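User: I'm putting together a teaching handout on how sequence relates to shape, and I'd like one worked example. Could you take Methyltransferase domain-containing protein from Ramlibacter albus, show the sequence you're using, and then write out its predicted structure as tokens right after it?

Assistant: Happy to. First the sequence, then the structure tokens directly below it.
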Amino acid sequence: MSTEQPTGASATGGIERTGNRSTFLRPESLAMRVCRVLGFERVAWSLRRLHCPVPKDALVLEVGSGGNPYPRANVLLDAYENTRERNWAPLKSDRPTVLGFVEQLPFRDKAFDFVIASHVLEHSGDPEQFLAELQRVAKAGYIEVPDAFFERINPLLDHHLEITQREGRLLIRKKPSPVVDRDLVDLYEDRAKRHMTGELFVEHPFAFHVRYYWRGKIDFVVLNPQVDAAWFAQETEAPAFATSLLGTSLRHRLQKAVLNLLQAMGRGRRRQIDLHALLRCPACGSDELVPERAHIHCTKCNRTYPIRNGVPVMQVAAASVN
């Protein structure tokens, strides 16, 4: 775990530069900043999904993409075909997609320029391995999670971690159980939940989330590494505040139309991606893979991974050993 100054920020909080080129990953687009200045936080929050501060030719991976992947992602990874953890929708595979676990990413070292992990880290019981794998396969990335404060008072039963950010460092606390402080949660639900989820959370989403950009190394610390957070997670329904954030308003429909347009514009470029050239065996780490029509075979450990509906299932438990 790094104790160094986060990459991109100087000791005084300025911007490091190499020659005349900034190495800083801008956390907000111009449109986002304008909306926030004008007080349109909900619009700015929606626009964040269109913001990916990388060159046009950068190769972008999204992990935990679920049913609503980021438009800029070139390659998608999710753990389940029928996941409902991301916006409570079936898995979307409209571009090169792989089934696998972030803790055992089936991709070669530094295969990607950028990796997006939005609302995924908090689902992991092993944050050290999760973050190590992100750093292994990508040169930079973006992590978005609910802030620890809101997770503590309004816990979701499939979230294993509480995460916040201080001075460019992620502070991670493992949850020993789905609900860490039952008395606090009961007080919150009795006195404040209706106002928090119905008003504050919806109108000020930036205040209740962590948005973390990194390059080269993720600066983080696990505050209680001795805790076992690998307990069984219960499936949860869409909370009311999440549904209200998605909305059915004209603004939301326009946003969805723009996202669909951007995805359609990128499909030609995505079709040119050689997915097999990016893969490696999640069990032994070998890139000596032989792709066939219905499976992918690792010649080093003799595991064979199935391909279902055109999607490689690169999970050790799904592999057969010859």
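A couple of points you could highlight for students: The domain at 17-273 is CATH 3.40.50 (Rossmann fold). The two ends are 38 Å apart (CA to CA).
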